[in-house]
Design a protein that fits this description.
Blueprint lengths: L5 E4 L15 H17 L5 E4 L2 E4 L9 H13 L1 H6 L9 E4 L6 E4 L4 E4 L12 H13 L8 H14 L2 H13 L7
Parallel strand pairs: 1-5, 4-6
Antiparallel strand pairs: 2-3, 5-6
The protein binds zinc ion (ZN).
The site of zinc ion has 6 residues, from strand 1 and helix 4.
């Protein structure tokens, strides 16, 4: 098992307020869990048949420390393509910190903070490029009511294309369709 899903936490959220409508969340997690498993499998078998094409998947970065995640986040946000397509919502960029527990990664909108479980063994499931890009997509897509809606998905596909390449983007795109949600392009 890869551990739990990623999640977002809005500043001031919780309590008895009505939860935001995020109808596609479960399907997005399902699609991404499948892509995570395929990327793990690709370490041994990098070629994969997807939608009639043979994709050769690139290696996905795994992170050994929060400092390396922070460097990666800074580098992705500094990519010319990302800077051209997205306005940085936070003047100070994104801060990476450790999160207690091992079941969820999350992004905090109010503080532009990406929190990752970093523990040993299976608790380290979140220290991988695709999980970090998921949380970064929340940062760039903004605090929409539908947190995992079309804007989020388009942003994540863009980030994956820029950071990991078009093969992984196509893999996630097809997987979104396969679980019944429109990637929206
Ligand atoms: Zn999320």
């Amino acid at each position: 098992m890869l551990g739990g899903p990623s999640d977002v936490v809005a500043e001031g959220a919780g309590g008895s307020s009505t939860p935001p409508r995020d109808a596609d969340r479960t399907a997005v997690y399902e699609a991404e869990d499948l892509v995570h498993r395929l990327m793990d499998r690709s370490l041994d078998r990098p070629s994969l048949q997807v939608a009639g094409s043979t994709l050769t998947l690139p290696g996905e970065r795994k992170f050994a420390s929060l400092e390396s995640v922070q460097r990666y986040v800074d580098a992705v946000l500094a990519l010319p393509r990302v800077r051209a397509e997205y306005s940085e919502p936070s003047a100070a960029g994104v801060t990476v910190r450790r999160r207690r527990g091992n079941t969820q990664a999350h992004y905090e909108f109010g503080t532009a903070t990406l929190a990752l479980p970093t523990g040993l063994g299976t608790a380290g499931w979140a220290m991988r490029e695709l999980v970090v890009l998921h949380e970064l997509a929340h940062h760039l897509a903004g605090d929409a009511v539908a947190r995992h809606g079309t804007l989020f998905r388009r942003t994540l596909l863009d980030l994956i294309d820029a950071a990991l390449g078009p093969e992984v983007r196509l893999l996630l795109y097809v997987t979104y369709v396969d679980v019944g949600i429109d990637p929206v392009l």
